[in-house]
Amino acid sequence: MKHLILLVFVSFTGFAQNAYNLIPLPKEVIPTQGHFVVKKSTSIGFSNAEFAPVANLLQEYLHRASTFPISAKASKSSSIQFSQNSSLGEEAYTLQISSKKIDIQAKTGKGAFYALQTLLQLMPAQIYAGTPIAGNISISNVLIKDEPRFSYRGLMLDVGRYYYPVESVKRFIDLMAIYKMNTFHWHLTEDQGWRIEIKKYPLLTSISSVRKESMLGHYKDQQFDGKPHGGFYTQEEVKDIVAYAAKKYIDVIPEIEMPGHSQAVLAAYPQLGANSDKLYKVKTKWGVSEDVLFPREETFSFLEDVLTEVMTLFPSQYIHIGGDECPKTQWKESKFCQDLIKKLGLKDEHELQSYFIRRIDKFVTSKGKKLLGWDEILEGGLSPNAMVMSWRGTKGGVEAAKQNHDVVMSPNSYFYLDYYQADPKTQPLAIGGNLPLSKCYSFEPNLPELTAEEAKHVVGIQANVWTEYISNINYAEYMTYPRALALSEIGWSPKESKNYADFKKRLTGHLPAMDAMKINYSKAFLTQP
Fold first, then answer.
1. Would you say the pTM of this structure is higher than 0.90?
2. What 8-state DSSP symbol labels residue 318?
3. In 183-282, which ranges are continuous DSSP H helix?
């Protein structure tokens, strides 16, 4: 009998996967007969104030798509009803559609918001176009019980290489929310540009935010466009973007790079580097700069001041401090650094970087925040609440989890979205690599090297949009979608339901909705195995 029940569930699940083009795939989909049709008499109700913004958002969608007004109000018996169910998880929901009623239950506004995203995907694709739909808005009956697999489902946008206007950043956030991603990692500083206003250090925006030109093509070509490029976000703009994301239940994590990737800082404040008399420039070439911050007390004071202002702008519990790709040549050649190594009893320059990161970790922790950094920060020890982002494959993530640190898996070979997604001859210029949609989808975050207890430290996954070759949001969308949807599904859906052929079929069926949203997605996957 046990096997029979399992077979029935699997067959239902298989039918559901084929009948509904939902991304990410919900935990449980049980199809039923019939349809719910939106009519003049349709009303939207919510049982408590926390659900009001979500109900109002649904009302806006339906109002734009239908030829008649639909109200949203506090009620317990509307034809589309949002109700609280305290037994559910923070991001969980149930969605039951019958011919007479749509019943949405969630514990929090966040769960209700994710239910809404699923409901919209069940509607005609034109619901996303913001224009009236000819004929009825008909929704297939179904029972969906859903909750995410991982708590951290992230996308990173690098605005250090190219500044993206506020509206472009908001567009990036909009699309994340539709596919239930909940963390926007904002890479704000680089060798090639500093993008956030720090009131105590105005030269960061007057000098560090502008480079005289940008590299064209790959590094070997050494060609430049001859045009200045710059831009930064005022603190008011940062607050606006953070608040905008919060309305879509997206946490914004800022990244302030150190001690490497900091040549733009040195262009304004050369005393923080190897030589205060050196005339540093904001870097115009891509690649890693040898000019890095020095572990002087003056540098730590500067960084603590910067981070203090940053922390007031971002309610996120995590502050990303980079920590990757820091060349040690200048430290090796510096009498100050060599003397400091001896004074602190360190072994070499790598341990000096660990000292640097631990100093910042201690400061961030003292402010009630948690440090997050690329996997290089593991070297030398961290405070217990620091989190590691594993980008050089998964080795760093495994090591961090074994040391009881939380981990976000972000391996470059699966989730660096600046890599080519098809034959380079058919694609816009990219940094290199080969990362088709199928490879993104094949990644499994919980690795066999981890015990069940250690695997609990893998809190989620993230894909990264590095922008050396991606100068605008249209280009970014092409590189991000549909590959980010693979990440969305891995981060949300049960491991047991993972099936690339089915994902590809659902994605193909979902393309009209992406067209309605005017997403500039790549179609390369359609002709790939």
1. yes
2. E
3. 203-206, 235-247, 263-268
